[in-house]
Amino acid sequence: MVLKKEHLLSMVLSFIIFLILNIPSLKIIYSTPLINIILPLALWSVGILKIISNKQLNLSYSRVKFLLILYMFWGMIFLITFVRMPTLLTYDNLLKYIVSLIIVTGVLLFLYKQEILNVLYFQVLWALCLSMQKIIWGIELNRGLGQHYLTLGLPLSAGIVCAILLLFYERGRKITKTFLIVSITTILFALTSLSGRSPVILSVLIPLIITIIHLFMEKRIVKKVKVLIAILMFIPVFLFLVYNNMSDRLLNTLTNDYNFENEPRFIIYSKSISLIKDNPLGYGLNSGELGVSYPHNIFLETAMSGGIFSLSILVIMLFFVFSKFFKAINYGSYKIVCSALALLYFLTWNISYDLTSSYIPFSAIAILIISTEKNNYNST
């Protein structure tokens, strides 16, 4: 059977977008800054070939609206940086943020709705591969390259969240269901061996939250009962597996008394809020000389970098995204998985990453927006 050019381009583009979502964990295998350049170039090259092949460009109202908000967001931050700290707008600094914008633009322009399921299954497969390597040989993270528990924990939690919700909401053959069950079990063993608590907590909470929301939105009584039974059966089994396979270090982290005021981030948050109060218009990007270049919170970082105007644009963007979030849950099927993946990436990015890696959550949000489109673009 000859593989059509359209099918091949579709699969390749899906694979590239999956790779982009996992750039940090790809660097566990082989670390090079060229990945950040090669993958965006590949995205646009394959995307342009798709447009030429299909003679069609994806520009729905939702995509254009999100792009406009996103460009306003970055434009305001760049403007504040130019006014406050023009010396920071060097070629290297600008390139990091512009590449992020180019990536998200490419996802919105080139990805078809029918290709999203490929991205989700690639994510599960990648998490399974990382988990097997972690369990069998172990994975050493390079602190010198900025790698930490989330470098491995985030793709694992993304994989298990996708697998759980695909198992419950996406129709598939028995072999597919078996693959998902094996993936969930294997990823769970690897995930609970990590030291950090957020990947484990989010892997439990996000599927639960999404399922409960869907339960309330579901109008069919029989379907409601089935979902409720699935929740009641799944939660104790999943929590039992989590607890019995949890590393001693992670168990101590979760069970120790938590004092928020002793948390180092509390000090960072307090200092960031004080700086924002002193100058609500913002200080510009990379304001490390202020002593808080990485406030561990996207809202605080946005307010520090672009001031209250950039923060207002971010809030407007999130209101728009939340409308798509609930619409995707209401639609069901793989669209529910897209809402969960976007939520996972945003929550994790909000507490542990900065604006230079914003292409990851914004790309996941772009996938969510595309999944809610009613128009069925003919890509294959």
From TrEMBL:
Main localisation: membrane
Transmembrane domains' residue ranges: 7-28, 34-52, 64-82, 94-112, 119-137, 149-168, 175-194, 200-218, 225-243, 303-322, 334-353, 359-377
Keywords of the record: Ligase, Membrane, Transmembrane, Transmembrane helix
Highest taxon of source: Bacteria
A cellular component annotation (GO) from this entry: membrane
A Pfam cross-reference name: Wzy_C
GO MF entries: ligase activity
Membrane topology, from the record: Multi-pass membrane protein
Domain O-antigen ligase-related: 186-314
Localization (cell): Membrane
PANTHER family: LIPOPOLYSACCHARIDE BIOSYNTHESIS PROTEIN PA4999-RELATED, TEICHURONIC ACID BIOSYNTHESIS PROTEIN TUAE
Protein name as annotated: O-Antigen ligase
Organism encoding this protein: Virgibacillus chiguensis
